[in-house]
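Researcher: Go.
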Amino acid sequence: MGTVISTPSKPGAPVKCEGLIMQIGNEHTRPDEALRIARQVVKQTLKGKWTVAPMAEGLREFEVGKPAGGKQPSVSAVWDMANRLEGHRDVASAEPALILPGADPMPEQVFPSTQLPPKSFLSAKHKACSSTEEWSLDLTSVKAAWGLKAKKGKKFGSGIVVGHPDTGYTPHPEIWKGGRVLAHRGYDFESGQPDPIDPLTGEFPSHGTGTASVIMSGTGLQVSENFTFVSGTAPKAKLVPYRVSTSVIHLSFKKVSQAIYRAIANKDHIISMSLGGPFGPRYLKRAIQAAIDNGIIVLAAAGNVWPFVVSPAKFDEVIAVAACNCQGKPWSGSARGSAVDVTAPGESVWRAETKDGNKHTTSRSNGTSHAVATTAGICALWLAYHGRSKLINRYGKENLATVFKEVLLNHGVDTPSKWKTNKYGSGIVNASKLLKAQLPKTPAAGGMKVLHSSLVPKAVNQFDEIMHYFPDSDPRHVLTVIGGMLKIKPIELSAALSEFGEELMFHVATNPQLRVEIAAQASKKTPKALSSKNMAADTIFIRNASKRLRGQMKL
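Model: Structure:
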């Protein structure tokens, strides 16, 4: 395959390499045998010294990286290495492990330098209707759901455990009282320590505490020195914190995947991810599928500022949540697109906050992080209300997420007038409707992949995946532009993308200048290929890219 586009010299979205993730053999390969093969493959294929370690116990997934103190390869080089590894007969999959911009990026990570928004971007004043602490619960009918009699289960999310990959936790009274934060079951994947406490560093300190409070804070006043408070949507659920990031501006999907496997081992019931990145690797999707197969419902934030839905929210297997305000209108900073399943309160939501010196307060905050936390808590209400074990006995644990998603999208929302379902999902989550909705007799035959806001199958080929990054463009024009860039005919593009589409998606996702220029050219009546004259210097294709591609594809 080779590198298609040169790594940006002055990128809008800086990316760092952590090594590679490699899957060995097939489902019949024993983990110990897979480890032996993995070490042998790396020794045969890559130059220099490399470490090989399982992503989690009992897996055929391995981290491949440099020894402590060793220099990781460049982003451009690691794609070539992944291609060489994937060409080995014993390697089922190999891809770069990268640190990417997160779900809450800085504007310069999303917009090209010529289109940076004003400093006032997303800094609008809180609306008056958000002044009461429980407005988000009222908008989503959570308190009405609390009042429903649980004939077969429990109320308030009691007995449900939420796995929570984020920045860790703090002993904030809003989440700490009652012993429902199971810190002893969590892990700090940033420092390699058992206790996932948040050291309050980075751009968004206490982010994990804030999103946890939206999920499971007790009702009413919890902080005696403060007159404001937080009421979580599932005030009796338990939460396991996994520290996977120092800041939601940057993110390692390797650590997120490790947290998912830990959640599976811990037998968590829900995974709520107030995080994401522009490019979702295959190994992350495999981890999420493993969670679903083990009866875990996975939800993720659609993303903030990004012009498209970030991963893992964009995956079919995940409930993707966009954000609205107290007026029931979409939040201006929410990512949007056909990958969104539902919307929930995300603008000016009350949440817990811990500042330096362990000063515990509450305040209002914006982000799809809070929207997915709200929905995850409502998911806990649903599981507790019907009785999770009863649902599993009825549908099978591998179908639990499918059943929840079907009921949520079809019955568990309010759909405002003129609501754009192709941008914000089937509507705004309504907890009361969700709990009262009749359960299906059987799970949907097509599973998660056919359950979407429009209830139609989503794209599966490489070009449709690339079109995810151009939601407002004519696909035919994007075909013309990309095909022209590679000096191949549009009819040949499908075959070309099967060879290098993943790497091209990476560059489109992480390079705002390239993305904007492709979209601009695709918007014209007669689109043309981008050339070195009208492309930014940091996105010019390597001179011999088209020759190499044509040689590999034998076109």
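Model: The mean pLDDT is 87.
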